[in-house]
Amino acid sequence: MFMLSWRWRCRPPPHQGGKFYVVDMHTGGEPLRIIVSGYPEVKGDSILSKRRYAREHLDHLRRALMFEPRGHADMYGALIVDSETPKADLAVLFMHNEGYSTMCGHAVIALGRFAVDYKLVKEPQTPETQVNILCPCGLVQAFVEYSDGKTGRVRFLSVPAFVFAEGAFLSTEGGPERFYIVTETFVADVTVEVEGFGELTVDISYGGAFYAFIDAQRFGLDVTKSRTRDLVDAATAVTKAVKSQVKLYHPCSEDLAFLYGTILTDGKEEYSPEPTANMCVFAEAQVDRSPTGSGVTARVALQYHKGLIQMNQTRTFQSGATGSQFTGKAVQEVECGDFKGVVVEVSGRAFYTGVSRFVQETEDQLTTGFLLK
């Protein structure tokens, strides 16, 4: 059998064009492509301005690394950038098939291991090493298990998470406008007209990104047994309805005030030692293979707000797609502007899947990527 020598197998192909070096990982089955080199400088004096700059000037590189032929419709990426705060060990921009997220829990879990293993933290500590990660939603603290030079499970403390409803404004085309009055008590749900399903009540909660929550049984579906296509169609219809009918607000930045996706649940919101399952559909109908770190954060905040889970009471959240699990618990009450919220601790495991050097040949007409749907 013909085999190339080690030296030739590791040699990059001859070409003219761009080069990218990436480290691939997964957390609960959800991919993360960490972009180590190949990008030009991402300009901006803050992480949110860098996010805007990447979206406006470097989006062709996102498509090249997330889309086919180098990626796929459900690829997820993390670009390490310079941090404007000395408290951060690293700063990161998150990317996916539609654009750029503000928070990603599965990525934070993977980046925690990566930061320790790739010496972004100078002096690892046993039994845990703290890694401060500046995300577009704010500074997130990750804690990486570390013993005998090896990294393990990662937990992180979220930015303030809260149930959204104060000041929410809804309107339906041709119908009356609806307002929610700002009071000390949040309104935990809103009603939207969902194409093909009629009026449905959804919860909206923030965990570094905004999500709509609804029981999959409202569509006659089961998050662990139904066809993925049917779950995606239902969640996408809810996302479309909320985006068109609900005006979101975040007290820190308008850049954070958008709906990231819809999370279908198994309806088991009250605390139980048994896992509760959900499936997150975000961006452009992208399916999260993990339980969704920022989604778990938002769901814990929602359950705590409704009195269904107590402070420091750990719940297990299971992915309807893969069965992988995260744990989550509320650990501190906080305020975010006028919202009363909580800091949530989320825990999970990430694993390496490969290291790649991608190239862009100048004559390749498909070099900027494509998606098939």
Automatic annotation (TrEMBL):
It catalyses: trans-3-hydroxy-L-proline = 1-pyrroline-2-carboxylate + H2O. It is an enzyme of class 4 (lyase). SUPFAM superfamilies: Diaminopimelate epimerase-like. Coiled coil: none annotated. Keywords: Lyase. It comes from the Eukaryota. Its EC number is 4.2.1.77. One of its GO terms (molecular function) is trans-L-3-hydroxyproline dehydratase activity. InterPro entries: Pro_racemase_fam (IPR008794). Homodimer. Belongs to the proline racemase family. This is trans-L-3-hydroxyproline dehydratase. It comes from Oryzias sinensis.
